[in-house]
Structures are given as structure tokens and as C-alpha cells.
Design a protein that fits this description.
Layout (H helix, E strand, L loop, with lengths): L4 E5 L4 H12 L3 E6 L2 H15 L4 E5 L5 H14 L5 E4 L20 H22 L5 E7 L24 H22 L6 E7 L14 H12 L4 H13 L10 E2 L10 H4 L1 H12 L3
Helix pairs in contact: 1-2, 1-7, 3-4, 4-5, 5-9
The protein binds NADP nicotinamide-adenine-dinucleotide phosphate.
Length: about 290
Amino acid sequence: MTKKLCIITGANSGIGKQAAIQIAAQGYQVIIGCRNKERGEVALNEIKEISKSGNVELILLDMSLKSSILSFSNTIKEKYDKADVLIHNAAVFDIAQKSSIVTSEGYETIWMTNHISPVYLTDLLLDLLRKSDDPRILTVSSKGLLAMPMLKVDLVDPEFKTGKFAVNKAYYQSKLAQVMYTYWLARELKADGISVNAIRVPAVQVDISRHPGISPFMKWVYQQKSKKSITPSRMAETYTFLATNPGIKGVSGKYFDENNQEVKSNKYTSNWDNINDVIKLTKKYL
Ligand SMILES: NC(=O)c1ccc[n+]([C@@H]2O[C@H](COP(=O)([O-])OP(=O)(O)OC[C@H]3O[C@@H](n4cnc5c(N)ncnc54)[C@H](OP(=O)(O)O)[C@@H]3O)[C@@H](O)[C@H]2O)c1
């Protein structure tokens, strides 16, 4: 295969779908990993139509389940002998969620989907990435973390088995962990020439119809927030820049904002003792 291959998780909506359109339009082969066949197929057709590319493929992937991630990576390995870009875009954050949801495999869904699974999927696809001449891994975090400088990953109870569940805490903890994982992985893979960078996503317009459970008040809050939010397509430009721009080949271990500028994450996430603690915890799930 001569085309570069880009794998994007959760690309049936929002930023991931727009990134798939932009990257496919640049001539990449694109795999979208989506958990719902119907939503995935609708998005696949839209991505193909807008990007004017036939080189887009849907492979089913539920990022809350290790079994699904294993099957996804096996399917890719059967078809492709190299991967160039892996974008860990999929995440769950439903502000209406009141209590913890445990997957059929026994893990808390947000911790699993947003943090552990990207780590697991990376591990499974590393051999393919190593075969690229410019391999890139992108993780996705949130600018919302700026509003909670005291938040830490709960090293004892990250799945709220004993503590009271709070969806905000669960989500932002997973996004902290992703930034720390990015720094750690970039260092681990430096000798292999694999770039690993994180993206700091600010408020981006979300499709409220995707969250039917929210109250009218929260719907109003979302609508107000939306006025100050950028579009998914505008945000996806940073995904595309980091995934495809030849000028940043070799840049690794950095955190980028929506203007493609390097930004600093907070003190907690930059401290190597904290990073090593989070990685030690993460490895228990692999
Ligand atoms: N929008 C913002 O303001 C904002 C701010 C900060 C960070 N972010 C981050 O930006 C990224 C993209 O978010 P977005 O705004 O584009 O939201 P979105 O439209 O809700 O996209 C999230 C995608 O993840 C998928 N997903 C969720 N759970 C999954 C699972 N178990 N397996 C596979 N796919 C799954 C969703 O698929 P389904 O259709 O099946 O649910 C959806 O396609 C996320 O990492 C998010 O945390 C967004």
C-alpha cells in the first residue's frame, strides 16, 4: 500500500468526523473506528462524499471494551502492514450521567473509554506504526482542565468503586491521564522515531441531539456555550495539521492548542513522579 494510513477512533460525529474528511481529502487512507454500525455507515458515506475520497473504511470499535479493541486491531493487521497516524479521538462525556456505568468486562466506562483503551489500542498497533517512516500518535485532552488546577488522577479509586461518582471528575481525570500518558509515551518511543502529541481542545460546538437525557436548563447552557465555541471543522484543522504536516515531523511530547501552538499543561501533569504513578496505575489494566 502506497497511501498513508490514518486511524481515527470515534469519527462518526463532531471533531473526529471532520478530521476524517480533511485527512481523507489529503489523500490518506482513513479508517474510522465507530461503535455503532448504523451511525458509522451514515458517517462513512458523508466522509466519502465531502472528501471526494473512496479511501475511507469503517471498522466497528467499542472503546469501552478490550475485546472489541483487540478485534479492531486484528482486523487492521490482517489488511494493512503499516499504519502512519493513530488519533485517539473517541471519548464519553454525558453531563446527564448521574451514576457510574460498569461495562460487561467489569470496568467503569469513562475511565476505560477515555484513558485505558487508547493506551491498550496503541500497544496493539505499535508494530504497524513502527513500519511507517513518520509515525504519529495523537491524544485528545481538554482546555476545561484549566478551570480545575487542583484535580488529580485518583490513584486509589479511579473507577469510583468506593467514592461518590461525579461525571465531571470522571471525565476530567481521564483527560489529565491522557496528557500524562502522552508525555510518558513520547519519551518511551523517542528512539523508535514515533511522535506522540496531545491536543488541548477548547469549547467546540456539540450536537445537542446526541444527548437526549439533558434537562431543558442544561440544554440552554449548551446553547449559550455554543455561541462561544468553535466549530468541529475548525478544531479538526489542528488534528489534521498534527497528523499530516511534514514540517512537524519528529516533534513529540508536546501539547497543542486549536491554533497549532504549543501550550503548557499544569504542574501536576508535568511532574514525572506523578506521571510515573499514573502509568503504574494504567499498566494494571492492560
Ligand atoms: N466538544 C468539546 O467542547 C470538547 C472539549 C474538550 C475536549 N473534547 C474532546 O474532543 C473529542 C471529540 O469530541 P466531540 O466534541 O467531537 O464530541 P462527539 O461528537 O460526542 O464525539 C465523540 C465521539 O466518540 C465516540 N465514542 C464515544 N464512546 C465510544 C466508544 N465506547 N467506542 C467508540 N466510539 C465512542 C462517539 O460515538 P457515538 O456516536 O457512538 O456516541 C463520537 O463519535 C473527545 O475526545 C472529547 O473529549 C471536546
